[in-house]
Each structure stands twice: as structure tokens, then as C-alpha cells.
């Protein structure tokens, strides 16, 4: 049955599935589609701006709709009862400010932003360069490696751990719970109970870990971000213990798996488009534009979510206050009405005079990624050195296995030859 709430027909799943998926229902989030979900997303996008998932929640598929939701304050994160419908097992105050609405979000983001100034990010460059160089020295000496294990995973883990002051001995353990927490951005209603229990446990592990680290920094501050957040203060306002804990867990988690994903998926995309790889190698100055294009082409977070704070119109449908919505960032980034030849990897796209519209991979609006400058730094230096130092870069074998996560999309391993 078509939803005619506002007079414009928005086809529901059954009708669409009959129309566009001869072989069944939309399965773009299923593990067997993780390798290449894009044709599934495109089929939805061509057919409809809003698709109702069997679980009852709508999926927005087009760029301008996603932008209008992300930049509209009446689309927020918590419902009218102060609950995030995608993670109802948590009270909002036990979640980091990524999940908060103004005025709380405004206050927390302002305080935490003090540790992410352009000056601070510029000061992190030597750490990133050093780490990239060391990891690639080892990988090149080995010649053939799993690029995820040797480079894409450790680079952001080391960088964010160094910045937060997580000692080397703790990193393997911290990396493990942070990876499980990658499930934190998946809509709970699409997850099996075991995964919901695992992400809740990972959150508890993260909080317990940072409780100790924060206690140590209160007594003996260093020059790391945790010490800075402990001391941060604006007009008498400070972060409470709970706010500090939630922020540290979020920074570790947000600053890690997403970057792993671009390094791994981006390298695969370049190896599959050898002319683009050659172009980058011959023009190292293109790195900033090329990274932007990789972010568009392979967004680590494929979806994000919002909740209507009051009755809202979108793409011809009326959403009641409290109704939730999933934004398919990965299809918005490839909307043919916005991006020319959207399925083509074109590392010059963002270098041309009439620059392409902004990618949604870091979000947009008040929740725009706080760590975008750090992520870009790691990606530019990481890809630059990888491409320059490994002229023989090539995939070994063609079997790839992908994480089962819905939002975060990355492969488990990427065997490559570097020399
Ligand atoms: C390629 C890497 C990254 C990607 C693709 C990414 C993506 C995103 C996206 C899409 C959002 C907004 C979500 C929404 O509005 O629903 C976000 C928010 C955020 N990100 Fe990132 N991120 C990356 C790296 C980082 C890093 C390195 C850090 C910090 C160390 C970080 C910290 C944050 C924080 C704190 C927020 C919450 C901002 C707010 O709610 O105001 N991210 N990120």
C-alpha cells in the first residue's frame, strides 16, 4: 500500500520490493551485500526518496533530503521522552554528546572543541608523520602484508591513543572494545539482542577504563587531551565526571574505526582503479582533493539517524513528532542529481574550479564531525606515503571478508603486495 499521508505517493516496502527487487526484498544491509551495497542503494534511490524498511522505519535515499534533515534543528537525536529510539537501552545522559540535542549538545561541544583547535591539529602532524613512517617501514620490509593489520588499523589507534594518553600496553584491549562499540551507531531495531548486549558491555568497559585514566590525570596532568578536558573550563562551566567519561569513550571510538575504514576501503578502491592510482602517484599535490573523493566514494559510516522533534514534512511524507528516520549517507554521496558520474572514482573531482558539492561522510550541521581535520590529516599523510613508497601496490588474491556492522563498512583484512 502506498503511504499517501500528504498526497504524494511514497511506496512502501512491499510495493517497491515487487517493483525493483525481482529476487526479494531490499537486502543492502545484509552481510552478503557488504562487498558492494551500492547497486542496491541506487535501485532504492532511483525508485523513491523514502523507503520503509520492514522494521517500520523510513530510509531517506537522496542528497538534498539528507542535507535538509541534517541541517534542520527540528530533526534531532532524542525523542519527546528524551530517549534515543535507536538505542533505547541507554539514558541520554549516559551517552556522549553525539547523541545529545541543544542546549546540552551546544554546551558540551563548545567545551570539548577547545581541545580540537586548528592549532592543536597542526601540532599533531609530527605524530601522524612519525607513525605512518614507522608502520610503512615495517610493512615494506615484509613486502607482503595484510594492510588492515599492518597499517589501516594501527595508524588511527596509535594516533588517538597517543592523543588521549592511553599507554601502549593497553592499546590492544582498548582497540577490541572500541571495535565492538562500532556497533553503537547501528540502529538497535536492526540488531540481534546479542549485538546490543555486546555494545552495552563495550561501553561499560570503555567507561571503566577511562574512569581510572581520568583519576590519574586529575592527580598528575600531562599534555594529553584527557588532561586538557579535565581542566577545560569556560565562564565557570566544566565537564562533569560522567560527561568526561562519555566524551573520552566517544573520542576513542569515533576517532578510530572510521579512519581504519577509509584507509582500507580507499586503498582497495585505488587498486581497482589503477589509472587513478597512477594519477595520484604522479601528482602528490592532489592528496587533499583525492582524500575528499575517497570519502565520498567510500563513506565509513553508511547511515546515520534522526528523530522528528515536531511534525515534519520530508519528500512528500509527514513524519509525526517522535518518529525516527535513517539517512543513507552512502547513497546521498552518489546521488546522480548532484554528482556527475557518481559511481566513478575521480580523484580530481574536488580539485576542479567548480568544486563538487560537499560530501556527507562527516555529516553536516551542528553534529559535523569534530575530528574531521584530524581524520583528513591522517588520511592525507597515510595515503601520500603509502602511494609514494609502494610503487608495486597490488591486491593479493580477491577474497575479501567484511564486518557485519550496518553503518560502519570495512573489510576485516586486505592482503597486498607493496614491493
Ligand atoms: C574518516 C574518519 C571519520 C569519519 C568518516 C567520521 C564521521 C562522522 C560523522 C558522520 C559524524 C556525524 C554523525 C551525525 O551527525 O549523525 C561524526 C561526528 C563526530 N566525530 Fe567523526 N568521523 C571521523 C573521524 C573522527 C575523528 C578522528 C574524531 C576525533 C578524534 C571524530 C570525532 C567525532 C565527534 C566528537 C563527533 C560528534 C560531533 C557532534 O555531535 O557534535 N571523528 N563523525
UniProtKB/TrEMBL annotation:
Under the heading SUPFAM superfamilies, the entry gives:
Cytochrome P450 (SSF48264)
Q: Which UniProt keywords apply?
A: Heme, Iron, Metal-binding, Monooxygenase, Oxidoreductase
- Origin superkingdom: Bacteria
Classification via InterPro entries: Cyt_P450, Cyt_P450_B, Cyt_P450_CS, Cyt_P450_sf
Q: Which family does it belong to?
A: Belongs to the cytochrome P450 family.
Q: Which PANTHER family match?
A: CYTOCHROME P450 YJIB-RELATED, P450, PUTATIVE (EUROFUNG)-RELATED
The identity of this protein, by name, is Cytochrome P450
The species this protein belongs to is Amycolatopsis pigmentata
Give the classification, highest ranks.
Bacteria, Bacillati, Actinomycetota, Actinomycetes, Pseudonocardiales
Amino acid at each position: 500500500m502506498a503511504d499517501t499521508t500528504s498526497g504524494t505517493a511514497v511506496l512502501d516496502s512491499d510495493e517497491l520490493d515487487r517493483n525493483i527487487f525481482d529476487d526479494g526484498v531490499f537486502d543492502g544491509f545484509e552481510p552478503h551485500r557488504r562487498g558492494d551495497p551500492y547497486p542496491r542503494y541506487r535501485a532504492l534511490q532511483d525508485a523513491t526518496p523514502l523507503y520503509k524498511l520492514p522494521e517500520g522505519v523510513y530510509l531517506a535515499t537522496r542528497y538534498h533530503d539528507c542535507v535538509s534533515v541534517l541541517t534542520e534543528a527540528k530533526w534531532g537525536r532524542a525523542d519527546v521522552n528524551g530517549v534515543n529510539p535507536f538505542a533505547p537501552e541507554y539514558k541520554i545522559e549516559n551517552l556522549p554528546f553525539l547523541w545529545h540535542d541543544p542546549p546540552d549538545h551546544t554546551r558540551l561541544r563548545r567545551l570539548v572543541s577547545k581541545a580540537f583547535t586548528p592549532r592543536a591539529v597542526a601540532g599533531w602532524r609530527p605524530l601522524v608523520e612519525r607513525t605512518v613512517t614507522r608502520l610503512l617501514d615495517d610493512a615494506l620490509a615484509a613486502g607482503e602484508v595484510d594492510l588492515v593489520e599492518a597499517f589501516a588499523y594501527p595508524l588511527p589507534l596509535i594516533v588517538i591513543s597517543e592523543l588521549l594518553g592511553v599507554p601502549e600496553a593497553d592499546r590492544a584491549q582498548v582497540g577490541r572494545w572500541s571495535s565492538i562499540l562500532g556497533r553503537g551507531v547501528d540502529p538497535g531495531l536492526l540488531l540481534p539482542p546479542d549485538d546490543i548486549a555486546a555494545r552495552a558491555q563495550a561501553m561499560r568497559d570503555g567507561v571503566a577504563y577511562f574512569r581510572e585514566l581520568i583519576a590519574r590525570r586529575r592527580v598528575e596532568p600531562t599534555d594529553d587531551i584527557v588532561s586538557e578536558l579535565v581542566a577545560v573550563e569556560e565562564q565557570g562551566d566544566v565537564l562533569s565526571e560522567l560527561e568526561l567519561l562519555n566524551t573520552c569513550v566517544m573520542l576513542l571510538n569515533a576517532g578510530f574505526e572510521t579512519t581504519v575504514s577509509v584507509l582500507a576501503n580507499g586503498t582497495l578502491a585505488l587498486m581497482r582503479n589503477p589509472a587513478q592510482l597512477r594519477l595520484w602517484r604522479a601528482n602528490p599535490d592532489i592528496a587533499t582533493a583525492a582524500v575528499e573523493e575517497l570519502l565520498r566514494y567510500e563513506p565509513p559510516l553508511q547511515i546515520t539517524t534522526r528523530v522528528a522533534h515536531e511534525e515534519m514534512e520530508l519528500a512528500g511524507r509527514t513524519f509525526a513528532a517522535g518518529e525516527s528516520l535513517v539517512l543513507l549517507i552512502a547513497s546521498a554521496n552518489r546521488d546522480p542529481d548532484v554528482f556527475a558520474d557518481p559511481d566513478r572514482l575521480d580523484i580530481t573531482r574536488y580539485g576542479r574550479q567548480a568544486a563538487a558539492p560537499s560530501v556527507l561522510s562527516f555529516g553536516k550541521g551542528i553534529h559535523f564531525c569534530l575530528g574531521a581535520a584530524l581524520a583528513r590529516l591522517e588520511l592525507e599523510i597515510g595515503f601520500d606515503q603509502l602511494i609514494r613508497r609502494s610503487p608495486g601496490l597490488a591486491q593479493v588474491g580477491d577474497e575479501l571478508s567484511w564486518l557485519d556492522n550496518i553503518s560502519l563498512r570495512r573489510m576485516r583484512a586486505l592482503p597486498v603486495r607493496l614491493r
